Amino acid sequence: MDVPTDPRWQARFLADLVRIESINPETWAGGSGESAIAARIADELRLIGLQPRLHEAGPGRTSVVAYLEGSGPRTLLLEAHTDTVQVEGMADPFSGRVADGRLYGRGSCDDKASLATFVGALRALVRAGLTPPVTVGIVAAAGEEFSGRGIRALMEDGLRADGVIVGEPTRLDVVVAHKGCVRAELHVHGRAAHSSRPEEGRNAVEAAAAIIGSLHTALDADMANLAHPLVGAPTLAFTQIAGGVGINTVPEHCVVRFDRRVVPGEDPRAVVSDLRAALAALALPIGIRAEIHDPFTMDGPMAADPDGPLARAVLAGARRHRAGAALAGVTYGTDASRIAPFGVPAVVFGPGDVALAHTADEWVDLAEVDLATRMTLDAIFAFA
């Protein structure tokens, strides 16, 4: 069904969202959280005629939920996240400026374009005076970039549906599989000494560097053998390191953070056990000990039924406007992996290119945002 959209309104609304700083404070100091952007989204939903509900997952960590009642028994949720990553290296991160059909700024692609897409779809239905064939809910969730605390809290409080379209930059393909993620810390302990007599100490930083290489040697081949046809092989990346107290002191302690991506078919808990077993098997230097602490992030992978009614509906909606739209897998994680354990089918779809997410020059094509809105509208009718 052809439902008129409003690209000019959508561009203004997306610019408004980008101008609101909503940096996730769990990992980036100084981030304001999501309360301000949640209020802006709730105001827009009220203008449409909906009755948004605010849901707090912590101080300043606000999500928004609203529904447009449909004529049929099914419920379809449109979910996208409101938080962003840091803005270091960006000249004007909250400008929302438009040039050559592109809208720039932090979150423009990841994930405020999807928010504008989903609000735009609901607005188009209301303005056209149409009752959708399914009840359509919108969820603007806090905290996706670190812990998923917004959608986790909502699911734990009983949020349910017959299907969820999770908005992320997929270049308008329909993602039915993605990796999960285990993040934890490797702690290496040695003995301090004066740097002029390093042989009297046990250097935790140097030991940590050797352990990193040894763990790759022990695990990389096995991970390569676990490659998934849509998302590729698991990966292990050591991403942050901190150790030592002074330039003239042999460091007695070093902390290394790592990110282990998990493919469909793997259990994140088994991944942690395998990492600890590989560490235990290493021959560490005398006086050095090391352990892997319990993960602070443990998200499973996502694998939706590519032949299920949700995937078929979203793909049909996409292909009505772009014949090349495909079912796909991606390496990054989304809130879909936090929804699926509750027995709710979820796929991932939205405008933008993930290669631009988190970059210093983040942007989204406004024509693609409007196209995503029209695809979403057709997916809603196809899901009936």
Summarize the structure.
By secondary structure, this protein is α+β, with helices and mostly antiparallel strands.
Describe the structure.
This protein is of the alpha+beta class. The chain has 2 domains: 7-178 and 301-383, Zn peptidases (Aminopeptidase); 180-299, Alpha-Beta Plaits. It is built from 9 helices and 19 strands. The protein has a 6-stranded mixed beta sheet with strand order 1-2-6-3-7-18, sandwiched between helices. Strands 9, 11, 13, 14 and 15 form a 5-stranded antiparallel beta sheet that branches. Strands 4-5-19 form a 3-stranded antiparallel beta sheet. A hairpin with a 2-residue loop joins strand 4 and strand 5 (102-104). Helix 1 (7-19) crosses helix 3 (108-127). The longest helix has 21 residues, at 204-224. It is elongated and about 80 Å long. The protein starts with 6 loop residues before the first helix and ends with a helix.
List the helices and strands and how they pair.
Blueprint: H1 7-19, H2 35-48, E1 53-56, E2 62-68, E3 75-81, E4 98-99, E5 102-104, H3 108-127, E6 135-141, H4 149-156, E7 163-166, E8 174-178, E9 180-189, E10 193-194, H5 204-224, E11 235-243, E12 249-250, E13 253-262, H6 268-280, E14 289-292, E15 297-299, E16 302-303, H7 309-319, E17 327-330, H8 336-339, E18 346-348, E19 363-365, H9 366-383
Parallel strand pairs: 3-6, 3-7, 7-18, 8-17
Antiparallel strand pairs: 1-2, 2-6, 4-5, 5-19, 8-16, 9-13, 9-14, 9-15, 10-12, 11-13
Helix pairs in contact: 1-3, 2-3, 3-9, 7-9
